[in-house]
Amino acid sequence: MKWIIDLFSSSLGRKLIMALTGLFLISFLIIHCTINAMIFFNDGGETFSYWGHFMGTNPVIRTLEIGLVAGFLIHIIQGLSLWRANHAARPVKYSVTKAPNSTWYSRSMGLLGTLLLLFLIMHTSHFWIPNRTNQFTHGEELPLYKMMFDVFSNPWIVFFYVIGCVSLFWHLLHGFASAFQSLGLNHLKYNGVISFVGTAFSIIVPFVFALMPIAVYFKWIN
Amino acid sequence: MNITLKVWRQKNKDTKGGFKTYQADHVSSDMSFLEMLDVLNTSLIKKGEEPIHFDHDCREGICGMCSLYINGHPHGPLQTTTCQLHMRTFKDGETITVEPWRAKAFPIIKDLVVDRSAFDRIQQAGGYVSVNTGGVPDANEIPIPKKIADEAFDAAACIGCGACVAACKNASAMLFVSAKVSQLALLPQGQAEKKERAEKMVAQMDSEGFGSCTNTRACEAECPKGISVTNIARMNREYFSAMMTSYEVVVGGGE
């Protein structure tokens, strides 16, 4: 079984882990974004709360949630460790670094990821952590829809949520297509589709997410 | 043309280097960058100073020996080798900064000369096809589609200069290694050893201390031979399938 350790500790295997966890987190974003977008029905949170309750109590979903937390942790830890190793591969830096030959966001995945991590800490401490804590201690869910109105009444929090969404946009813009390249899925017949879907996904999902705190703050929904 | 040069001078790999400024006057715009350095070196030798050490060999753009990180680009602002870079690319009176390739796996030997033997060791690990001796086979005995032959040839155009490592923000050697894996993996002659090749070359690359690929595509933009990052995707496929399906060889025959 040594080969498995060799595979996942090699530079290519570590990128494989980044790509697989990245795509897994992307699939989570689809579900998270779809359910949260239910608030735009403007039905007093009825649809949103129905699905929120399902996600928070269904045993299958709760089991998958453990995988999700693991996915986040692996992606973050592996990303930071790769950033360190890549940094160490050039101990003496160049003195001339102008005239770049690549996009800034493809070179800044570590920075964008760190911003997302800070956002994630803030975001989970607003909703997920208190809700799950309450479920474990009192066996009851918290009224997430109502909490959302409390949290997003603060303009600073709305501002940081939008910053988080902008970071997510740039991170996905490189990460989505990059994951396929790391997996070895680069083919002239499919590159166009991957690039189009990746760009569309990176624009739509962060935009819908950013719209939520803004809509609540400006009372477009009530 | 009059040029101001800021050149990295370093006695050996253990000493600390630094930039030194030189004035190159009456430079012909038709000179190659290396010829300009030759003239500068002649004047330095006449003055009794140590000439600037730099790598060069064929000066025809095919050997991969010349290097130099010029004004923030490996091989200078054009997508070519430094020997094929002419002074007309620069403006009269321009200040040009010349640095060596910077990578942990490419230690500096002297001034602008770096030790690129890490590439040789990667090649030796598996970048070959074992051929038995015997009669010469017919030229077109093995049918190979034209497009595949072209793709293999494009990968084989890699001259191993190391510009990809120099350009990459992670000092990653993946464009080089992937070109070497691809040129053989695409052809029937390379099939017998393809799994072993991918495994060994990647393992050697990792042990040399190169960084990982983050798909910025800077290497592709700077490669003087236009090697494409599709080769990196192919190497990833080759490596993953090799690691998951190859036979683990027990050394010693299992006695």
CATH topology of the largest domain in chain B: the name is Fumarate Reductase Iron-sulfur Protein, Chain B, domain 2
Gross CATH architecture of the largest domain in chain B: Orthogonal Bundle
Distance between the termini of chain B: 73 Å
Bin the helical content of chain A.
over 70%
Helix and strand topology:
The complex is a heterodimer of chains A (222) and B (255).
Chain A: H1 2-9, H2 11-36, H3 46-57, H4 59-88, H5 104-107, H6 109-126, H7 128-138, H8 144-151, H9 155-182, H10 188-217
Chain B: E1 3-9, E2 18-24, H1 33-46, E3 69-70, E4 73-74, E5 95-99, E6 108-110, E7 113-114, H2 117-126, H3 146-156, H4 163-167, H5 174-185, H6 194-207, H7 218-222, H8 230-245
Parallel strand pairs in B: 1-5
Antiparallel strand pairs in B: 1-2, 3-4, 3-5, 6-7
Helix pairs in contact in B: 2-5, 2-6, 3-5, 5-6, 5-8, 6-8
Structure overview:
The complex is a heterodimer of chains A (222) and B (255). Chain A has 222 residues and is mostly helical. Chain A has one domain (10-92, 103-217). Chain A has helices at residues 2-9, 11-36, 46-57, 59-88, 104-107, 109-126, 128-138, 144-151, 155-182, 188-217. The radius of gyration of chain A is 20 Å and the shape is globular. The termini of chain A are far apart. The mean pLDDT of chain B is 94. With 255 residues, chain B is α+β, with helices and mostly antiparallel strands. In chain B, 34% of the residues lie in helices and 11% in strands. Chain B has two domains: 3-102, Beta-grasp domain (Ubiquitin-like (UB roll), Roll); 116-130 and 142-245, Fumarate Reductase Iron-sulfur Protein, Chain B, domain 2, CATH 1.10.1060. Chain B is elongated, with a radius of gyration of 21 Å. In chain B, strand 3 and strand 4 form a beta hairpin. Chain B has eight helices and seven strands, in the order ββαβββββααααααα. At the A-B interface, helix 1, helix 2, helix 4 and helix 9 of A face helix 6, helix 7 and helix 8 of B.
